[in-house]
Amino acid sequence: MSIAPNALTIGVDIGGTNMRAAVVDAHGEILDRAATLTPNSEDVLVDKLVALVNTLRDRHEIAAVGLAVAGFLDPDCTTVRFAPHLPWRDAPVREIMTDRLQLPVRLEHDANSAAWGEYVFGQAREAGTWVYFSVGTGIGATIMHRGEIFRGSFGMAPEFGHVTVVPGGRQCSCGKRGCLERYASGTALADTVLELADDCPEYRRSPLLHTASTGEEIMNAARDGDALGQAVVGEFARWLGIGLSFVADVIDPELIVLGGGVVGNHDLFLPAADRVLRQSMVAATHRPHPEVSVAKLGSAAGMVGVAHLSRYAENFPN
Ligand code: ADP
Ligand code: MG
Ligand code: ZN
Predict the structure, then answer these.
(1) Cβ(298) to ligand 1 under 6 A?
(2) Gap between the Cα atoms of 222 and 208, Å rounded
(3) Which DSSP letter does residue 179 get?
(4) Does residue 140 have its Cβ closer than 6 Å to ligand 1?
(5) Span from the CA of 61 to the centroid of ligand 1 (angstroms)
(6) Distance between CA 313 and CA 318 in Å, rounded?
(7) 280 Cβ inside 6 Å of ligand 1
(8) Strand 62-69 and strand 8-14: pairing?
(9) Which residue in 42, 65, 137, 296 is a FRET match for 36, CA 20 to 30 A apart?
(10) Is residue 267 classed as helix, strand or coil in its secondary structure?
(11) Euclidean distance between CA atoms 120 and 38, whole angstroms
(12) Using CA positions, which residue lies closest to atom 16 of ligand 1?
């Protein structure tokens, strides 16, 4: 059973930093938006989520709600098992939110939601085997093969962001050390600033060392010519390229679509990351290379994708 073809649904993208909501029609067009910062206690999170949805429901008639969550879900998408950047632990979020909102609720992993948006409305229409790779607070990824999301046996796949790249390296919020996302994410950039300045005295004059900087501020400093910022972006590009070479070696996709907030500055690092990818892939000179492109729906991909999935809240599309 799906909802009426002309009905509107809400998609909410619940990230480690921001919660963004949109009213979306059946064609993936966004009619209205609302946003708030992600709180770090469970009760406040649920209350803020309800308030965010109700802000939009006051202005539109809504048939269903989709929640795109930056965390590990069970395979039938009812429970958030664990989320490195969110307070939910083994929380039956679909039931909690259905009770609170009195609407059908579809829960989905945030990267899967964004991948679905790109597959139905964006950069990956017609793609056979492809990977969505999102770089924001952390790294989230989705493998799609012949129109289906590949979830693995227990709903965990794929977690490229938590592959160990530096044994004993930077502490990750997942509990492990040296995960890829500690080197190639929006939040990793600030750690690289400190590490490079520690290693190299010439960087110590950079204004980036005197303020706690966001990923955006660090990349903007690089754009404005700051030497430390440029070195940090160089390191980021190298790690991203290595990460993408894992994707290419394990999945052999025709297409990798990059999403997430950091992609707003893709011109600064994508050419270098693509070069590293091409050099690091196995049998690099004897095989076709995946096309790497930027998400067409941008930061709206997760909201649009999960709003579309919520149209089928009663029977999952795969
Ligand atoms: P979330 O992880 O909450 O879904 P985003 O995908 O927007 O959120 O990613 C937020 C992270 O990305 C933050 O660490 C932020 O500093 C960084 N970031 C956001 N936009 C940019 C940008 N244009 N350039 C570099 N870093 C960015
Ligand atoms: Mg996100
Ligand atoms: Zn990790």
Answers:
(1) no
(2) 10
(3) B
(4) no
(5) 31
(6) 12
(7) no
(8) parallel
(9) 296
(10) helix
(11) 27
(12) 215
